[in-house]
């Protein structure tokens, strides 16, 4: 049980969170965690989960402001699964990688021209943008550390309370847990989900895949594997992490499998949906997921080879007796192949997020 001062801090943090004042919510939850530690000499994973969630939302909100677009709040445990923000994240990763490559090419082509001017501009930009960027980084780092501590404490609880139960533990996504053990398993799954999202935001895709896989395994125990929106959501997030965490083609195949699981669940939910508006939304989402599934199943290398052959065939059809035709052909093919390779690179982001501590 919490003392009245701690309950007051929790209530203030909850009110701030509901107003989307995530900085204030983080501060109140941090004070509550500190007060509990002073009073009882221990940490509460429940409070740490609230604190970590607020820190994560704070980081997301600042990331959206810096990126020029207001972010949508992440779906909570009580909300139905929605993949649109995941799809938007994938597009953002591709756009960012493409922009970085373009900037590198432009600097290379420009040579040394205007270097002193660029240095001055870069310094000014650093002075203007350095502080917000540092705050954003700190929020995600702090969120990961706090949530990782919550993970450790919840796992200790679950280990001590372990009970053999029939799966799924919950009758529906919105069903209340029937025991402390099930409640803690549900909270631990949320912790892993948030850890995965933090790593996705930080582009640490290997860590994101590991945490989202842990989340999936817990939710397979909690929810109906054929109908749960909680499962379809984590399947989709895991597909994003797997697609971007490595060039290994087997991981791309696994990403496709998880999208297929998400599609199957959404189809089953749509068949049972009685509200026309929701059914229509589900149909639109299904179309997007099926397009993504088809894209993931393609063999990228085979696709490149086919496009190269199409390019060569097209150029050969245009060559008409020019003595330098062979040279032109070789030059044109090489140029287009480089363009194709660049396109593929933009589809693959490398793990560039801050290094994370290994879980104990």
UniProtKB/TrEMBL annotation:
Gene3D superfamilies: Tetratricopeptide repeat domain. Residues 120-135 have a biased composition (Basic and acidic residues). The keyword Repeat applies. One of its GO terms (molecular function) is histone binding. It comes from the Eukaryota. InterPro entries: NASP-like, Tetratricopeptide_SHNi-TPR_dom, TPR-like_helical_dom_sf. Keywords: Coiled coil, Repeat, TPR repeat. This is Tetratricopeptide SHNi-TPR domain-containing protein.
């Amino acid at each position: 049980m919490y003392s009245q001062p701690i309950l007051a801090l929790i209530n203030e943090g909850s009110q701030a969170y509901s107003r989307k004042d995530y900085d204030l919510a983080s501060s109140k939850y941090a004070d509550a965690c500190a007060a509990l530690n002073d009073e009882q000499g221990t940490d509460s994973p429940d409070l740490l989960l609230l604190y970590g969630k607020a820190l994560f939302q704070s980081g997301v909100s600042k990331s959206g402001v810096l990126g020029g677009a207001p972010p949508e709040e992440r779906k909570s445990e009580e909300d139905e699964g929605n993949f649109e923000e995941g799809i938007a994240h994938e597009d953002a990763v591709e756009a960012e990688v493409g922009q970085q490559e373009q900037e590198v090419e432009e600097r290379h082509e420009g040579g040394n021209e205007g270097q002193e001017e660029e240095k001055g501009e870069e310094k000014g930009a650093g002075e203007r943008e350095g502080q917000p960027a540092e705050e954003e980084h700190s929020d995600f780092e702090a969120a990961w550390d706090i949530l990782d501590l919550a993970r450790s404490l919840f796992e200790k609880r679950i280990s001590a309370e372990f009970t053999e139960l029939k799966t799924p533990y919950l009758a529906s996504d919105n069903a209340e847990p029937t025991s402390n053990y099930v409640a803690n398993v549900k909270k631990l799954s949320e912790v892993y989900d948030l850890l995965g999202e933090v790593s996705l935001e930080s582009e640490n895709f290997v860590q994101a895949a590991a945490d989202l896989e842990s989340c999936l395994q817990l939710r397979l125990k909690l929810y109906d594997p054929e109908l749960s929106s909680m499962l379809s959501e984590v399947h989709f997030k895991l597909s994003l992490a797997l697609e971007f965490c490595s060039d290994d083609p087997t991981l791309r195949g696994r990403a496709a499998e998880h999208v297929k699981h998400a599609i199957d669940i959404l189809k089953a939910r749509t068949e049972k949906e009685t509200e026309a508006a929701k059914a229509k939304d589900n149909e639109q989402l299904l179309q997007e997921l099926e397009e993504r599934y088809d894209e993931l199943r393609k063999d990228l290398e085979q696709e490149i080879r086919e496009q190269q052959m199409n390019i060569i065939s097209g150029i050969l059809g245009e060559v008409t007796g020019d003595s330098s035709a062979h040279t032109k052909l070789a030059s044109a093919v090489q140029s287009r192949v480089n363009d194709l390779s660049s396109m593929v690179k933009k589809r693959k982001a490398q793990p560039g997020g801050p290094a994370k501590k290994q879980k104990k």
